[in-house]
Amino acid sequence: MRERARSTEDKTLRSAALLDAAEALALELGGVRHLTVAAVTERAGLHRTGARRYYASKEDLLLELAERGWAQWRAALVAEVDGRSGLRATEVAEIVSRTITRLPVFCDLLAHVPMRLEGDVDIERARRFKTNSFAEHDAMVGALAEASDLSVPQVQALIAAAGALAAGFWQVAHPMPTLAELYRQVPEWGHVALDFEPRLTMLLRATALGLTDAVPPRDSGDKIAG
């Protein structure tokens, strides 16, 4: 029994080491698209075939990193609104923007998840990702609705906008070498690559204000489904 517990703990630690290594390399290399399993495994200090014991593929590893990102975003956001009430729409937008932009690798992964990662793993792995990410999403929505004047549908729409905008803006703000050189040559085109957080915050503020008119206000029966 003790050996089994030690084995489980070792597996958890090594899995986390692979995720940490992937995140660190993604930051150094300019995005998860540059990662290889071999580089991640080497950074984590494991044998070159070691990653396969914990993750079936690169896609599985990156999906796990995205899943961890959802948990990190929820934790940061809930911590910011803990004990607060009556937050205005624009204040909620600023909190959403600030907490997601502190997770650059997660922002990067938000573009890759629907385009590739979810479709390149087996259905049970995809199911687990959906189950866990939706749980984190619902926890964020509940916390923001409780702390603000926004309704659950309004917060849901704002979170959806934040994810979509952060995914797209992160890619634009971290161009491939050819585009980076082009922006250097033509600076007026490259300004979009320089203001990721300010641009996201501005548009989320506008979205939040628009939602107060476009989506029904808080109802006494408001709650998260499920």
What does it look like?
The protein has 226 residues and is an all-alpha fold. It has ten helices and no strands. The longest helix has 28 residues. It is globular and about 55 Å long. The relative contact order is 0.11. The N terminus and C terminus are likely disordered.
Q: Compute the average pLDDT.
A: 89
Oligomeric state of this protein: single chain
The poorly predicted ranges are 1-5, 220-226
**What is the H/E string?**
HHHHHHHHHH
Structural class determined from secondary elements: mainly alpha
Task: Kindly estimate the percentage of residues that lie in beta strands according to DSSP.
Answer: under 5%
| Helix-residue proportion | over 70%
How many beta-strand segments? 0
Radius of gyration, taken over Cα atoms and rounded to an integer in Å: 19 Å
Largest sheet: none
Q: What overall geometry do the principal axes of the alpha carbons give?
A: globular
Can you tag this structure with a few keywords?
HTH_TetR; 10 helices; 226 residues; disordered C terminus; disordered N terminus; mainly alpha; TetR_C_34; single chain; 0% strand; HTH tetR-type domain-containing protein
